[in-house]
Amino acid sequence: MLEKDLQLKNFKKATEKFKIALQYDPVAMDIALDATIQRFEFTFELAWKSIKLVAKIIGHQCKSPKGCLQLAYKMGWIKSEEQWLKLLEARNLTTHTYSNETAMEVYAIIKENAAAFDELLKELAKEI
Asked: Where are the domains of the chain?
């Protein structure tokens, strides 16, 4: 299996698991909140790294999550750069600070924007 195929397959699998985690009530089960945030972090990492790989394949370069999101917007792979920058901020919050209040804020952001991962997957698959 080619690197690009494996990368997108892993991104798709992570997105599916992330969506499953979103089905559980984070208030009723603390573990659901933690699991959802962990799956979001993993899915977000695979998202920007998939952008980086596809960009490289077609002759573009990006090195950081923010740079790759900006390129993805420019290429039309994502519809809202602002939405993805909000997801990047949420990811940064979870990796540097952890409190229940922050976790609930992040949860609200990621639940509201979860469909963005599916949209990106479709666009990247079309590109390659």
From this structure: 3-127
Please check whether the domain covering 3-127 is classified as CATH 1.20.120.330: yes
pLDDT in tens, 97-121: 678 889 999 999 999 999 999 999 9
Q: Tens digit of pLDDT for each residue in 10-42?
A: 999 999 999 999 999 988 888 999 999 999 999
- Decide if 61 contacts 11 (C-beta within 8 A): no
pTM of the model: 0.93
61 three-state secondary structure: coil
How far is it, in rounded angstroms, from Cα 60 to Cα 82? Answer: 21
- 7, with CB counted inside 10 A (0-12, 13-18, 19+), is buried
